[in-house]
Write a structure and sequence with these properties.
The chain is mostly helical and 137 residues long. Helices cover 54% and strands 3% of the residues. It has a two-stranded antiparallel sheet with strand order 1-2. It is globular, with a radius of gyration of 16 Å. The structure holds a DNA duplex (9 and 8 nucleotides).
Length: 137
Amino acid sequence: MGDEIRRNMALFPIGIVMKLTDLTARQIRYYEQHGLVMPARTSGNQRLFSFNDVERLLEIKSLIEKGVNIAGIKQVMNPVSKESEEATVITPQTESKRRELTDLQLHRLLKQQLLERRPGRTSLIQGQLSRFYNNKP
DNA sequence: ATTCTAACA
DNA sequence: TGTTAGTA
């Protein structure tokens, strides 16, 4: 499976990724600080993103738009480590199953958060999401 | 011209 | 998150 090396190949600088994802440099760097993506670095310390990195950022963007915050995203997205990505063989089957599971986890997470909203634990949802279940805009 | 880190009238 | 300063 030499296609993985292509997907994990460090190719584009943050400027390109901004156009590809419609995310600000601030957001992209912020998500990296929280371990949501691990772009490679050039010898000059500049970030170089792979296709996989861009796809992850798009997924993150999608979740953010659904009202999920960083904590929530960390729980529903599979962790990224250079090693696991290169070692994990991703067949079309495992890929689709990964997304299925992610959606189920997301739905479960959202319902869980909206129901057992206990004092003390910080919400994984960023306010607006309640509109998908409660009042209608 | 771009990107990076750090910091906040 | 935006934005800006001072670099590399």
